Amino acid sequence: MSNLDRAPVPSVCGGRGFVVAEPVRELLSPRQVRLGESTEVRRLLPNLGRRMIGAWAFVDHYGPDDIADEPGMQVPPHPHIGLQTVSWLHEGEVLHRDSTGGLQTIGPRQLGLMTSGRAISHSEESPRPHARFLHGAQLWVALPDAHRHTDPRFEYHPDLPTVTAPGLTATVILGALDGSASPGTTYTPIIGADLALTRGADVRLPLEPDFEYGVLAMSGEVHVDGVPVLPGSLLYLGCGRSELPLRAESDAGIMLLGGEPFAEELVMWWNFVGRTQEEIEQAREDWMKGARFGEVKGYAGGPLPAPELPSVPLKPRGRAR
Questions:
Q1: Residue 211 near residue 258 (C-beta atoms within 8 A)
Q2: ∠280-285-287 over CA atoms, to 5°?
Q3: Of 5, 69, 200, 273, which is least packed with CB atoms within 10 Å of its CB?
Q4: What DSSP string runs through 16-29?
Q5: What is the sign of the dihedral through the CA atoms of 180, 185, 191 and 193?
Q6: Is residue 12 in some structural domain?
């Protein structure tokens, strides 16, 4: 997934200095961003108040959109470094192509996981023909320094483990939850899970006290530790929790995002996650020259040009503002 802002603001994040060590209830509102020809997303991370949750560094929520008479998602080839992308759908399909030769249609509750490593490019589009509705989330996971120059790869996992309780089915996207582990490759202690709750469900989800957590609301109405969370919002929960109370006022879908606080400081600009301004500048130059990132074959259109770099210096610092 690309950040298609034509004037993207650099985000500086990471480091443990701004991690909230105790449980909190910090509700984050989204920013509306246009994505391609006909898709508008709600951007939850990076947020004006908080930049990361564990290694999760970017969260977009979109839909449900009626695209019966629209092209749907149309994101031209674009580059990434230093991160993993997670494609997650509740409705519709996304056709993924990348410069390693990856070609895959991703459906609801199937994991499309792309590791950029040192450099990759990819495109995303709604297939033709496509389903009437499109609803999902796109997320980035920052890679730690020891693995951020790894070989690029794409993984597709159509069958993921689940955890069940009365009124709850949790699909484990990344990491492990209550003894069930995702097959997706991870490089830091992390959890990503999709929680489907039925109306009236009242459950307590086991958590790791050393992780920080957030909950992204996808659909319906659910109370998270007593806080009503509506679709398109994200509740930051801090650390120090061994369980999370959930109560569904209607059938609802939420995503649990968490992990060990990310210790390294990062610079994130456009579609790049790096450590220095020089690294970001070099990645942009390489993309514009057609070097390093390979070629996405089969997409009906040209690659996405990089925006101009900001005039202010890009310096890594804390994870919150």
A1: yes
A2: 95
A3: 69
A4: STT---SEEEEEE-
A5: negative
A6: no
Residue 122, annotated as binding a ligand: yes
The answer to whether 298 and 122 are in contact (CB under 8 A) is no
How far apart are alpha carbons 274 and 259 in whole angstroms? 20
CATH number, position 213: 2.60.120.10
78 in a domain, yes or no?
A: yes
Both tokens assigned to 28: 């984050």
The annotation status of 124 as a binding-site residue, yes or no, is: yes
What's the rounded Cα separation, in Å, for the pair 106 and 168? 24
Residue 300 lies inside a defined structural domain of this protein: no
Nearest to 6 by CA among 253, 227, 307, 232: 307
Residue 310 and residue 296: Cα distance in Å, rounded?
A: 27
Q: How far apart are CA 315 and CA 198, in angstroms?
A: 45
Q: d(Cα 207, Cα 176) in Å, to the nearest integer? A: 10
Q: What is the pLDDT of residue 199?
A: 98
Outline where the chain has alpha helix (H): 277-289
Between CA 183 and CA 291 the distance in angstroms is 32
* Residue partners of 285: CB distance under 8 A and separation at least 6: none
Token digits for 253?
Answer: 């879908």
Mark out the alpha helices in 149-307 (DSSP H runs): 277-289
Residue 193 structure tokens = 């899970």
Q: Is residue 288 part of a domain?
A: no
- Annotation-wise, does 157 bind a ligand? no
Residue 50 is predicted with a pLDDT of: 87
- The number of folded domains in the chain is 1
190 within 8 A of 205, measured Cβ to Cβ: no
Question: Taking the chain (321 residues) in consecutive chunks of 10 residues, what is each chunk's mean pLDDT?
Answer: 54 55 91 73 89 96 94 94 98 98 98 98 95 97 97 98 97 97 98 98 97 98 97 96 97 98 94 95 97 96 94 69 50
- 111 and 303 Cβ atoms separated by less than 8 Å: no
Q: 87 is in which domain, residue-wise?
A: 20-259
The total of other beta-carbon atoms located within 10 Å of residue 42's CB is 20
